[in-house]
Every structure is written in structure tokens, then in C-alpha cells.
Design goal:
Length: about 350
């Protein structure tokens, strides 16, 4: 069985929210424990009191269901005091305890400035570790293997060695999708919707769910970064905002600009998508998105929630409660995630039915 401790990576400054979420999640499964995290450390570790129950719970955790965690790794204890001249042998031995066949190896450091500096120091270790792993009989390129091996460094001579399950974890190092800013998009905000679509819909289903000719409404659209993504997929977009829209976007013939209040706007006919990036209270935005889905004004919605400085986890729970209450017994699916491109925000996807 994989180690019981669950190591999650997050945006620096959100360790407390990670701790609250892990504790709530484990608690709901009847698993008690404590979380170790340092402010601005960009990671947290959940330690269950009962290792067997903890391991059984953490083996079921899917990072897609966690809001603040970018990646979830079943991690062994911290290996510290690694000999500078030969760090690889002990790491390989710890990896061997985790298994012998992995699909990939990720050498990682926290997503902080210190972590980035550490990553540069760790890089030369890679070939030594590859040799030590081979000697220990550990493969890290087995395409059929279901687990990934993670070595997460907290310093030059200290690391956690852990595993993530392919089907329940993020496929990118540190759980961060690296997206390039597309030339021609009118705002960096475009990356938020690009990441949300990749995460919530996935590359395979994207062509079917965002197909040419479909219709969308973008509430709080100016200058047009989110509209740009929808236009790119061939959708016809009604962009609602008192602010100006990018001229090149309007020239595509796919965008109609309406200078109206996003909270009052209603589509003349149901649309496929509603997206919303209005800077407003999360509760108000949530209630609005839930109404769009409940009334059948759209099939799916993606909306950004700007979190307050304090009680951010509580705000996320409130958002869930508002959607649950608004949709009542209607079938729906809601997912929330603090995206890599989100700052003090989380992004939500809400859809009618059972997708
Ligand atoms: C963060 S910006 C949106 C950026 C946009 N998603 C993009 O990618 O370029 C927020 C926008 O929401 C608009 N906004 C705020 N409250 C609004 C409301 N009640 N109705 C319509 N737009 C609103 C603002 O005018 C602003 O342009």
C-alpha cells in the first residue's frame, strides 16, 4: 500500500486553505489527522493518526476534486541529511520501497522563489539518480505503469519520495500546466479560461463541447481574453461589458458586444456556454451562474470567483452551498479549482445533467 501521508502542492500563501480542505476531506471519510505546512511554503502534508485508515483514504483522493491542491502525492517520510557526495543511493532505495515500475519521474521543488533556485541546484543530480534507480531495479519509463514517481526536494539534502496515481493526479511537474500566451489574445486573462477548459473539459472532449457554430455569452468580457478563447473554437459570442472590446475580435464577425449589466443580461435564446469573469462577490457570481444553469439559459458555465483576503476556504464552501441550494434536486456537476493562472481566485465549472 502507498504511504499514508498525502503531500499536496499549492500556490504559495494558500497552505492554510489546503490544510482546511485536506482535514475536511479526510474528516468526511472518518479519517482524523493533522497537517504540517509552512506559510508561503507552497505545499502541505496531511498525516493521518491511523496509518492504515489514512492510506486507504488517501489512495482514493483524486486531485481533480481538491480546490487548492495542484498535485497530490503519497509521500514517504522526509529523507534528510542526504550525503552531498551521494544523494542518489538513498533516494533510489526509498523509491524501491514505493515500487519498481513507474511511468515517469518528476524531480520537483516548491513553486516559490527559493524552490526555483533549488531546482537549478538539483538539476545536475538527475543523471546520477537515473543510474542509481536503474541499479536498484526501478524503471521510470514504463508506459504501462499506473504510478508516477516524485522526488520533492525541500533543500539540497532533504526530500520526500512519493508516488501519484496516473488517473487521480495532474500530469504535469508540480501540477502546473505550462501554457504559452497566445499571440493576438487581448489579455493575459485568456490563459485562465484556456487552463479551465483543459482541466474541466479536457483535450479529448473539447472539440465536441466547444464546436464551431455553438453560442456563448461572456459576462464581464472586456477587453476580450476569454471571448478570444471561445472565438478560437469557432463559437459565436455575445460579450457583455460596459468596457471596450478588442477591435480585432469584433472584426471576426463572431462577437456581438452588448454594453449591459452582466447581472441583468438574459439571452434571447438558450446558449451552449456562459462564462463570467466579473469582479464581484463570489456569492453573487455563484448565484448568477447557478441561475443560468437552473433556468436552462446555458448548458455549461465557467466562472471565476475572486476570493476575499480572509476565510477563503469558508467562501468556497459557501459557493458550493449556494449552487446546491439554487439547483436543488436538479442534476448538476460542479467543480472548483484554484488554477495556476488564478491568483486570489478560484475558477468553477458548472453543468446541468450528469456529464
Ligand atoms: C477581470 S475583467 C475581465 C477580463 C476578461 N475576462 C478578459 O479576459 O479580458 C472584469 C470585467 O468585468 C466587468 N464587469 C464588472 N462588473 C460588471 C457588470 N455588473 N456587468 C458587466 N461587466 C462587469 C468590468 O468592466 C471588467 O471589464
Amino acid at each position: 500500500m502507498a504511504p499514508a501521508n498525502l503531500l499536496v502542492y499549492c500556490r504559495a500563501g494558500f497552505e492554510k486553505e489546503c490544510a482546511q480542505e485536506l482535514t475536511a476531506c479526510a474528516g468526511a471519510a472518518g479519517v482524523a489527522g493533522y497537517v504540517k505546512a509552512k506559510p508561503d511554503g507552497a505545499f502541505a502534508v496531511f498525516h493521518p493518526h491511523d496509518a492504515v485508515a489514512g492510506a486507504a483514504w488517501s489512495a482514493r483522493v483524486d486531485v481533480a476534486d481538491l480546490v487548492f491542491a495542484r498535485q497530490a502525492v503519497h509521500a514517504g517520510p522526509l529523507l534528510s541529511g542526504l550525503p552531498v557526495g551521494d544523494r542518489a543511493t538513498r533516494i533510489a532505495a526509498a523509491a524501491r520501497e514505493r515500487g519498481t515500475r513507474f511511468c515517469e519521474l518528476f524531480l520537483e521543488t516548491p513553486d516559490t522563489n527559493d524552490g526555483k533556485a533549488l531546482a537549478a541546484l538539483i538539476r545536475p543530480l538527475a543523471p546520477h539518480l537515473a543510474r542509481a534507480l536503474a541499479l536498484a531495479g526501478v524503471a521510470t519509463d514504463d508506459a504501462a505503469a499506473v504510478e508516477r514517481l516524485h522526488v520533492f526536494f525541500l533543500g539540497g539534502t532533504a526530500c520526500h519520495v512519493g508516488v501519484s496515481h496516473r488517473g487521480r493526479s495532474a500530469p504535469w511537474p508540480l501540477g502546473i500546466p505550462r501554457l504559452r500566451m497566445p499571440a493576438g489574445a487581448p489579455s493575459r486573462s485568456t490563459l485562465k479560461l484556456a487552463e479551465a477548459l483543459a482541466l474541466f473539459i479536457g483535450a479529448e472532449a473539447l472539440g465536441e463541447r466547444l464546436a464551431p457554430g455553438m453560442r456563448a455569452v461572456d459576462l464581464g468580457a472586456s477587453p476580450g481574453g476569454w471571448t478570444w478563447q471561445l472565438v478560437r473554437h469557432g463559437l459565436m459570442v455575445t460579450a457583455v461589458d460596459n468596457g471596450p472590446m478588442d477591435a480585432a475580435l469584433l472584426e471576426t464577425g463572431q462577437v456581438r458586444h452588448r454594453r449591459e449589466d452582466g447581472f441583468r443580461f438574459r439571452p434571447a435564446e438558450p446558449v451552449d456556454w456562459m462564462v463570467c469573469d466579473m469582479v464581484e462577490s463570489p456569492s453573487r457570481v455563484c448565484a448568477l451562474a447557478a441561475r443560468w444553469v437552473a433556468e436552462g439559459w446555458c448548458r455549461e458555465a465557467i466562472f471565476n470567483l475572486k476570493l476575499p483576503m480572509k476565510k477563503r476556504w469558508e467562501e468556497v464552501e459557501r459557493a458550493r452551498a449556494i449552487v446546491a441550494e439554487s439547483l436543488g434536486t436538479r442534476r448538476h456537476r460542479l467543480r472548483l479549482k484554484q488554477l495556476y493562472h488564478d491568483r486570489e481566485e478560484v475558477t468553477a465549472w458548472l453543468a446541468a445533467g450528469r456529464r
